[in-house]
Amino acid sequence: MITEYPETLPGPARTALSVTAEGTHFDTVLEGRHTYEIGVKAGIDDAYPHLKHVVFSRSLTSVPGAAVELVGTGGHPAARCAVVSDRRPPRDSEGPVSV
Fold this sequence. Notes:
This protein is α/β, with parallel strands linked by helices.
């Protein structure tokens, strides 16, 4: 796993295992608030400094990680994921989703 997907390891694990390989499969990590808060409580405000880091939450108004993007109640998770993956936003019953 480390050889094929080094980018999936969080920064502290990469450091501990001396993993320096660039990732080839993923460039972005998407997390919900609960998962993100596990790292924050452990003193890690950006567990994936080598990836674009997006956190989705309806209750957070800010995140301590300066490089972490917060998509809150005003954002639409499916639309944000579409932008991250370079796909057009999905259409729903209310028409196109604005990004």
